[in-house]
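Quick board copy: two proteins, each given as sequence then tokens.
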Amino acid sequence: MDDVEDAPVPQPDELRLLVTEYATLREIWSGILILGQTSASRREDVEFLRDLGLIEGQGQSVVLSDSGRRLLELEPVRQSEMVLGFDRTMLGF
């Protein structure tokens, strides 16, 4: 219960990603993610990142958008074991 009470409140201009979503974004950038060979949860990460505008493309072919590349250049403004927070204003949103 204390963990919930101590959890930081996200700021209005903060984009929050699960660590797994951030890892998926890095894998897309590095070219090591093969969409046809990923788990269902990884495919959900890809759809979420696409909905946010961090990646673009359809089907098996996705690449980072300009916002996705900018996000990978930023340091998180908030970090926990499960979540990373980034300044949304630095991403052009």
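And the next:
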Amino acid sequence: MGTTIRGEYLPRQMQPRPFASAVWPGSQQQDGEKPRPLALMGEIGDVALLERGPTWERWQVEVVSPEAEVAFFIAYFPGWRATVDGQKAEVRALQGLGIVEVSLPEGSHEVVLHLEHTPLRGGAEVVSLVAVLVVIIMLQAGGLEGWKVGGLKVVVVLGMIIVVGLGGRWWPERDFPANDMTMDFVRMPYLHHNPDGVGFGGEIQLLDYDLPTEVRAGEVLSFTLRWQPPHPDLWADACLVMMGAQRPENDPPPLGCSAFPEIYYRTYHYIPVPDDAVPGLYLVRLRVWDGERELQPHTAQGRPLGVIYLRPVWVHNYRPLSGQEPVRGDFGAGLALSSVFVVPEEDAWKITLDWLVGERVRANYKLSLRLLAQDGSHLAQRDLQPGYGFLPTSAWSPGQLLTDRLRVPFPPDIEPADAAALEVVLYEPGRPPIGSAVIPLRERERVFTPPSMEVFVNADFGGQMRLLGYDLAREADTLTLTLHWQAQTLMPQDYKVFVHLFDPATETIVAQNDAMPLNNTYPTRWWVMNEVVSDPVVLSLADVPPGRYRLAVGVYEPQTGQRLPVTDAAGHPQPDNRLVLDEIIEQPLP
């Protein structure tokens, strides 16, 4: 990834910060391989990585459009240069992903990318060389005897470094077993051997384990842990968790767990891997309990450790799209939501999102998960990357179904039953959202009989929905317009309804409301044919100046802003694709 575990070394254009590289999730065709370059503009055909080194890569790229902007999965830093068929080409950083971008004309081209020195790096090397020369001069300044003594010290030190370096290659390696490796993220956040075992609470030790390195979704992960001494009063709990579970602020739900009630010399664990598990690396988290008290892990020398994780396991899974999946939200950019499940737990909502990936995603998007009350207000919100950062959208393989499991903690004084809908927003940091979807969380009794209403309209909105009529009520500085809609078909979009209070002389809008029906909690995509929905829309008149105003109603597609055409009951098209109501709204002088 070109960075450390703390992310100190990243291009400034790489936002949001990735926690995994573009090859992390993998696919059936590409597990751990260098990903195919992205065609940001235009189209590319056959692509081959001919050879590569630590600071260079050589590609053969076929461009089948007149030109193409191509991004290679190399973190951009100053000094990256490119040649196309031997000719120098401009290299840019792709905003958001922070990777190398090159323009290519039509045809087949050999593209060589290599990292060169920059003036800053060259200057740093000169400074280092000058420092060595200064040390030599200082040694020589002590006279001939001082030079001999100082020079001898330098030779001895250099000789020791060479001996240690070469000796390390020739020294016979100790044969450590691979089945005793663990890590924690407090003291030793890397896999290491434990020849003396890992202790728990000073009462029992994990000696080693028998754990497969890979498993397929839908299968059972079976493994054995070996302990000493036997301690039947203790029990072991092992869970298969995604990368990122070690970060306390994440706390993702595990894929599955296996508890063994009494620890003797061996405990046997079986964890079914869900059919919809995202492909990639997972960790086995191990805890030991005495009743309800968790025992603190520690080294053989008694030094405390954090939660213990065993050697990673690679989960293989590739779920191709059938084309029959339902769509609950279309975000464009080749992304759609197929299904959403929200389950309240002890302290958080557990949210499962099934994504349809239609084409290669050209950015690392963030998610905003927003729980809405019945009045549309926000109860809770959490912004994060898919997979807590370990499932970057730029690595999602086209043509597959991916499942993401996330959690949104309950705020204080909020009951889970207060949530009426979940809004899912996808966006790039610093840019407008590319789309959103609202998922109702409450069972709704569908109504097919129109209620009584003050005014009958029977206006058609693009053959999608019909405004049967409305009720209008005014109280102090509040105007409530209740719109009675009827679905004319199964709608493929989550349309928004606008209500404008405007000055008919100047077309100035003095108050408005733009939202999906029922305060964004019952999107039109969820309506069935002939269903009747009564939607009260409230406008505040507190800041409306004195005057005479009219009300206009319209329906539009949120991503494009395009309004549905409107015809009245007589079939006459309405100007500006809006229906102007008959009522005159008078705002008196204060």
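Board note added afterward: The chain has five domains: 38-115, 119-170, 179-316, 329-440, 455-587.
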